[in-house]
Amino acid sequence: MKPILVTLLLSLTALIGVIPITIAAPPSGGYIVVFHDHIDNPAATANEISRQVGGNIGFIYQHALKGFSITVPPQAVAAIERNPKVKYVATDDLRYISAQIPPTGIQRIFADTNTSIDIDSNDDYRVDVDVAVLDTGIDFEHPDLNVVGGVNCATGGPFNTTCGSGGDDDHYHGTHVAGTIAALDNDIGVVGVAPGARLWSVKVLNSRGSGYASWIVAGIDWIAANGNIEVANMSLGGPGFNQAEYDAIQGAVDAGVAFVVAAGNDGDDANNYSPAAFDNVLTVSALADFDGAPGGFGSQTCRPDQDDTLADFSNWGSAVDIAAPGVCIRSTYPLEQGEYGTISGTSMASPHVAGALALLASSNPPSNAADVSILYGVVVGAGNFDWTDDSDDATQEPLLDVSNLFPNLVQVDQASNQAPTAEFTHSIDSDDVSGLTVNFTDVSDDSDGYIESWFWNFGDGNSSTIQNPSYSYKEYGTYSVTLTVTDDGGVTGTYSQNIPVDDPNAGGGSGYGIDLTVIPRKVRGTMYADLVWTATDDGKGIDIYRDGSPLIENVVDNGEYTDANLGKGGGTFTYHVCNAGSIGNSDCSDTVTVEF
């Protein structure tokens, strides 16, 4: 299976040369802890382990797999592994975009001649399918893309237990990938393989094109929780093998999501890289094609290479399932970067195949791993061998050919329905002296219609379909609560939040329910401390203390704050937070110590 480093797999070639990519160093002491499948409350178990080893929790996973990410000293890992609830511990490896390189690719795979796709420069029909792009994000405002929703899992530091809202592209890679998959057939710019497919931005890489395995697993976990997504593209990767990434993908595949990944741009055996080496995905190498036609007669354009051969940067090997155009591919760019751009890489090849899978999935929606395997087989089986394999392996992979794939199209007035935005607030019921009853208030919104139904998962195995439920838990702990809303067009939106349910009569410094977590991190040597606590609904502000002295007073209680005034170097710091104007410790958090 493939390496663990997450990278955008493109060969970023501009007319003036190659654009260098900055790769951040992996976090010190970052790990992904995976639980056995029978664990029914990952959030509570994560909190239990964190208290035992003194670590700082990052993401909590409960859909693609069960577990969490954590930052702890390396010597604490053995204690975590001995916990009978833990299946294994994986390192939180760095992932990044691999260096990249119009759409002649659409012509080369015969998408423009397939009358079933109906590419005619008229945006009257769109492919009825949902595709997730795990990348740097997508430009939500691009007029050539049908972006219906998104999420941001690229936190910049592991202090959010769930992915946040958003997913806009602050790089360009993800927007380019999205255009190859599904740019609109609208007589402007470019057109994608599956024109008008509904795109979901799953941002797992930052503005530098890099990220961590924990972010990617969180993105996959989010996809697995959203049952309307059929295809996911991962134009990223790195060297090594990460079991958590593999298992997360398998969990989503089991739920009926087909995955396409880039083979990598190292001119090496793809078996040495992840997720390219995984056997539960379609791995794609890059073809050099300059004229959109077979025969090898095209003259090089944006970069030197030989027409109709394996791109000189592309990885190869037995892990590769299929080839697709990946050299000098023109696609969408963020509006502020010119709307359209031409780049190269296996990152550009992979979305061609994702688009092909989207065509198939629109008429044959997968619901389990067996269905996904059938889709993989059909796409690979439809390929042709009308190209020259000059790679270092002995096996020629088929070249993507969509001339005989038949999608399900919907009229634009049906296809343009935007996904609703799910969201809720909560409060502990003041009439319940036990503190076990939580009142949930739906604050979801649908910009182009109305919300028709609600489904609450309370995180303990129970659920409700009431819009604003009150729910009584059986025991104290932290519960990952998920709200899924469905609009009048049948499109869903999902929102998750970890809800602490504490004993109001318990002694100690957390009697007011303020549960503080502090995550230390460094950026270019500068120390930052990310504070996250359970925000209250009492209208009071929060006082934040560092080393026993006030750091900031009466700040808005939004549940998080970053101390960016620590300077460079190292040191040990203590933090606690209190309701504004508190006297004593009755309405303060416990004191948390962090060390850089």
TrEMBL record:
CDD domains: Peptidases_S8_Subtilisin_subset (cd07477), PKD (cd00146)
PROSITE patterns: PKD, SUBTILASE, SUBTILASE_ASP, SUBTILASE_HIS, SUBTILASE_SER
Pfam families in the cross-refs: Peptidase_S8, PKD_4
Stretches assigned to coiled coil: none
Keyword Metal-binding among record annotations: yes
Signal peptide limits: none
Gene Ontology CC: one annotated term: extracellular space
BP-aspect Gene Ontology terms: proteolysis
Keywords: Hydrolase, Metal-binding, Protease, Serine protease
Superkingdom field: Bacteria
Gene Ontology MF annotations: metal ion binding; serine-type endopeptidase activity
Active-site residues annotated for this sequence: D135, H173, S347
Domain PKD: 435-501
Family, as annotated: Belongs to the peptidase S8 family.
Family annotation (PANTHER family): CEREVISIN-RELATED, PEPTIDASE S8
Official protein name in the record: Peptidase S8/S53 subtilisin kexin sedolisin
